[in-house]
Amino acid sequence: MKNSRLTAFEVINGVLRENAYSNLSLEKALDGAENKDKAFVTRLVYGVLERKLTLDYVINIYLKSKTKPKIKILLYMGTYQILFMDKVPDSAAVNETLKLADELGLSFYKKVINAVLRKVCSEKNTVLDNVSLDIKYSCPQSLINMWTKMYGEENTVSILESINNRPPVFAVPNTEFLDAEELQYELLNEGVECELFYECVKINSQFDVSRLNSFKNGLFYIEDYSSYTAACALDAKEGDVVLDMCASPGGKSFTLAQTGAQIHSFDLYEHRVNLISKTAKRLELDNIIAGVNDALVFNPDMPKADKILCDVPCSGFGIIRRKPEIRYKNLDDIKELFDIQYNILLTSSKYLKNGGRIMYSTCTLNKKENEKVVSEFLKNNSDFELIEQRTTFPLKDGGDGFFYALMVKND
Hints:
The chain is 45% helix and 16% strand. It has helices spanning 4-18, 22-29, 35-50, 52-62, 69-84, 90-103, 110-123, 133-136, 141-151, 153-162, 180-189, 213-216, 225-233, 251-257, 270-282, 337-349, 371-380; strands at residues 169-173, 194-197, 200-203, 220-222, 241-244, 262-267, 288-292, 305-311, 352-362, 384-392, 402-409. α1 (4-18) packs across α5. The longest helix has 16 residues, at 35-50.
């Protein structure tokens, strides 16, 4: 792999200037890299994206004029290392950033870069004293205001305290072969630090999942704990026909399949469907049928279902710590999601048997995409009744922010 800081620069540049997805860009850039390099690049990339507003605030104190986007990214990287990466000496943060400027053909700007970073070093212990919440947590004030209005100040602060933490990774055991305790034993034997977390295993160390024999042998799959508990709440039974309408990458389908139900997993794109099928084969879950389907369009060939899961496209405000750039979305740009979400739920409900259950879920924290969609659906469909509605806030050592509403179709 090329120089780790150069790799980080290229990923950050792609996300900020070309609207690339941070997780996909990182995965591609780090393919085949050593764990040490992976950890450093991942920390630096996500750190800069997470703390962009904080970094802008600090840099603008010392940078009195506009500069080129690439220079700004170099300043982001150097400043982040100085303020938030304790294991990187200040001198290394400055000198390596200057070397990177040379590699990128930006030597002309080294004097400015050096001056700003030296100032950050000299005042790093006080520069963030008494700042507002948006600067402290690097979260747009508009999003903070929305959360405060919808969930209250205490919950909002709790959300803010979670969004810049590294998200936990959960391994869900394939109960066809083993339980959580046995999976923990297998992972520990392969050098993966982990602990039991209810019915799952929380992984506490860097690892390359594709190199683990336990993964290759289908003993587990990766799924966030909030997503896992939502799939369990649908309460699929052996023999049930279950439709997972927006299934990719398939975690909930795999959880549902372990009940013995017949799972029909759908996605709009064939390559995503192929990903579900590939994982189902690895897990030896032969009760999953994956296919291409547009959840917005009624399909007369769809089987009548006992249970339906609609995990709809959303703004993603519950998974900011996994995709930090999500926090910078313009709130006006997500208004069109309501119609998509409502119509997926409405179309999907037409496949449900009388007495059957349907779950609407998102990985966002926005009542306009959550409770409002469910309320509108129930108002317009009197044969459906709400059983349970739940919002989960992200926790440092727990699952992501998540919402689900479980409804029943009355006879």
